[in-house]
Amino acid sequence: MPRPSQIEEQTRKLIPIVCQVFSELGYRRATTAELAGRCRVRENILYRLWPNKKAMFLAAIDEIFQARSVVWSQLLEDSQTPEQAMQRIVRYETIHQGDSGFYRIVFAALTETDDPEIQSALTGMYRRFHKLVCHHVDAGRNPGHSEAILSAESAAWGLLGLATMSNIIRELKLLPKRQREKMFEDVAECLMNSNDS
Question: Model-level pTM greater than 0.85?
Answer without folding.
Answer: yes
